[in-house]
Amino acid sequence: MKTNLKALAFILLVSVFFTANAQTQINGLEKLAPEIKTTFQKKYPGTSEESWSRIDKTILISFKTGTEYYDAFFDEKGAWLSTETSILYDQLPQPVRDSLKSGEFSTWEKGSVLKVEYPGAAENYKVYVYSKDWNEMEVRFDKSGKRIQ
Fold first, then answer.
1. Higher pLDDT residue, 122 or 147?
2. Which residues span the domain enclosing 108?
3. CB neighbours of 53 closer than 8 A, spacing ≥ 6?
4. 36 in the Ramachandran plot: left (φ > 0), alpha (ψ -120 to 50) or beta?
5. Is the full-model pTM beyond 0.90?
6. Which of 31, 74, 83, 113 could bond to 59 as cystine, CB 3.0-4.6 Å?
7. Are residues 10 and 49 in the same domain?
């Protein structure tokens, strides 16, 4: 129950952050710059429920493929930067779970978990952890369980 409340608090915090920092979330891709739209559609054909917003100089496109939801990040020139999707803690590779259980964050509560793809890089994972006094950290791992700075 405590973990669910922390996860809900985190989701609300992230929602407020993106709402406050994004100019406007726009449904559909019609008003998106052509170079970004082209790159997106080549990388992710056949998507649905697309919407996008600008966060500083980054374009965030949220979309659905099949039953999964994704967030893809692009620069202003249309270059793909990364894509994130939420996964369950149990879907983390075993080496990552082992690192979280035995490493420096073993006593911290685990929150949201994201699988992250970068150009030219293997899958990475982002895990939000919370200390007993509610300090929050975003911790990144490669699939072998090695922490990425």
1. 147
2. 88-148
3. 18, 22, 23, 24, 25, 26, 59, 60
4. alpha
5. no
6. 74
7. yes
